[in-house]
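Issue 218. Parser rejects a valid record. Input:
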Amino acid sequence: MENIIKSIDDKPKSFCGLFGIYGDTDAAVKTYYGLHSLQHRGQEGAGIVALDHIEGKTSLNIHKDFGLVSEVFGDDTLFKNKLSGKAAIGHNRYSTTGSSDSKKNVQPFIVNYRLGHLSIAHNGNLTNTSKVRNELIDEGAIFQTSTDSEIILHLIARSKLENQIDQVKEALNKVEGAYCFLFLTDDKLIAARDPKGFKPLCIGKKNGSFIITSETCALDINSIEYVRDVEPGEIVVIDDEVIKTGQIKSFRIKAEKEISKHCIFEYIYFSRPDSRIYGTYVDKMRRKLGKVLAAKHPVVDPDGDKVIVFSVPDSSNTAAIGYQNQLEKMHIASKLEIGLIRSHYIGRTFILPGQQSREIGVKIKFNTVKGVLEGKTIVVIDDSIVRGTTSKLLIKLLREANPKSINFRVSSPPIINPCYYGMDFPSSEELIANKFDQDIEKIREELGVDTLEFLTREELLDAMVDHDPEQFCTACFGGEYPIPLINGLVKNEFD
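Output the parser choked on:
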């Protein structure tokens, strides 16, 4: 029997990645590199739409497919023959709604309607999709995809307003949930971020051109200067006039501002540590998470030897640095080490024969550095535990290195609730914290570690330096859902 394993990471899956640029003759090439740096936000598919003007005619040309960015755009002649032009938008996809095996669902999308061409790329999850979609179908709309993103295209195309900015604003006022949108038209790049600012979105500038993207790492790869974040509830417009004056056009989705509810998992796990989101570098926040974790949940060797601290690479690397630094400040003998080696060459899918495919899968991805671990009190730092299946197998692998004891520390609280805003968690019943009634001791026994401790929700929020803790969404950790629930479900949740 053969098992095809898409991922052996027992982690929440990332949102999508966005990159848009206006006013650059190599727009699609810069978009390509930007998507490369945002690959962690989605690996199912990628696409680029380029705006070109040839002999007085405007066209939006697209190339998209399943796979990683390097696979989808492996033919470099695409950028000369198909994706030329002064503006482009790109998208890396991880599906949270809509089938992952339909090429139609790979973004960006393009339509041609009465005001011209319109392309869209979306990061996030709309929560009233079912209601709005059904209303549109009743009015005669025909949907080509099963994603929530297509709804916005229908709302814009059906608008009776005569200005595209007004059409976008009208459409966004009819949807709820978490979103960052990029729109490319015949003469402008438009970006929008939901009123609560769930997802990160920033603006950059280079040689007169403007760039809008999910994370600043996509600016860095192109040597682009960071300007500012797109504000929650803001619509940003870049056109020829903006390129000429350097003054960004800005509009509000709603007149009144809402309290921000940034996704706290961006700091815990999703975003790259070298990115700056919500106004603060991710690396700084993850180090702080590690420091708080050590201060509240330290590990001491019973014989006075140094404890060996290491991460589950790669997303926990900086939290492990913070943890060990704090132990040193507390005069606890410790050493930061590389205890696990991760292979980066297993690909997106692979075939595993036999009944022990998951166990082999973990060994394909990780191996221990036995000389570092043998006979030592070890502290394993991880950013989160979801189902716990991979963590359990990883602990079994570490046991083979014969450490003195295995102490597991997690730089986030136990996950107990599903997310309705674009983060792909399993059902509540599958979450290990709920399987064991949030009993940490029972979870410890299940994983097979000597000690297990998580950050509490309060400790997590205390670590959010430079921020008002009220500005974060922590619903998955037992906090309130920022968008009201009805009968335990998000209002009008997409089927």
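Fixed in the parser; the record now loads. Residues 1-7, 491-495 have pLDDT under 50 and may be disordered.
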